Amino acid sequence: MRFQALIRTHHITSRKKVTALKRAADTHQCFVLLRSGGCPGIMYVEGKEQTNVESWVAVVRKLRYKDFQLVGRPGVITPEGQQDILPDVQEGLSEVESVKEFGDWCQKRGIWSWWRKSMGYA
């Protein structure tokens, strides 16, 4: 069983804050995907324990991002379609430059409908 959360912010441009997010991902043993560089800023976190995901979200909250919104509260991942079990992702932080890339990754991961609903697109 794996857990996930989704955060939307105004933007993610501070490299200092991204470094703090990477450090938190390593500390709390989570995988993090960021959409950085412009509006909106999107952060997806996934971990094996709900407490790890919640701890990472707490770190983000303390960084005081403009327009911080926890749009996908920490919870169990329910894969869509044919995927009964999601393969593990490597812990750490990855970045994409566009919302389209972020959505494509979510679709491949089997969480596209959840992501669209959380973002308010569906």
Written description of the protein model:
This protein has 122 residues and is an alpha+beta fold. The protein has a single domain, classed as 2-Layer Sandwich (Alpha-Beta Plaits). Helices cover 37% and strands 27% of the residues. It has helices at 15-27, 50-62, 99-109, 112-119, and strands spanning 3-9, 30-35, 41-47, 69-76, 92-96. Helix 3 (99-109) packs across helix 4. It starts with a strand and ends with a helix. The model has no long low-confidence stretch (mean pLDDT 92). InterPro entries: RWDD2A-B_C.
Give me the secondary-structure topology.
Layout: E1 3-9, H1 15-27, E2 30-35, E3 41-47, H2 50-62, E4 69-76, E5 92-96, H3 99-109, H4 112-119
Parallel strand pairs: 2-5
Antiparallel strand pairs: 1-3, 1-4, 2-3
Helix pairs in contact: 3-4
